[in-house]
Amino acid sequence: MEDLVKIATNIIDRAYAPYSKFKVASIVKTKSGKIYTGVNIENASYGLTICAERVAVFKAVSEGDRDIDTVIIYTDTDEPTPPCGACRQVIAEFNPNALIVMASRKKVITQRLSELLPNVFSLKPSQ
Ligand code: THU
User: Fold this and answer.
1) pTM more than 0.85
2) Which one of the listed residues 53, 79, 93, 115 is annotated catalytic?
3) Which CATH superfamily, name and number, covers 2-116?
4) Burial class of residue 18 (count of CB atoms within 10 Å of its CB; 0-12, 13-18, 19+)
């Protein structure tokens, strides 16, 4: 896991966050072992901003790799940042039990998505 957090620290400056100045990096690891990177990308219209996690998930899915295993969220802060509600729902679409690793410069917290988003809305028969 440390290697993935290290990659996140290396890419965080790709974040485009001129409005909030809050940079986020995300790494998605799929069951095949491949990794996909993401950063938050803001927009002058604010509402079109996309979180780092969703960028990484959409990159994986658009490459045909839907089996999400782990999602790292890295911020250069003292406390780790948990994924926003929208990102939880998007990750749950592909794996409601994904491992979510929230890392900051001082701490790492690991939780299952099923703990962060219990009783998830799903149209899939069973998971
Ligand atoms: N942000 C993320 O990238 N991921 C999250 O889970 C929380 C919020 C970004 C969106 C916005 O660019 C900035 O953080 C401040 O909300």
Assistant:
1) yes
2) 53
3) Cytidine Deaminase, domain 2 (3.40.140.10)
4) exposed
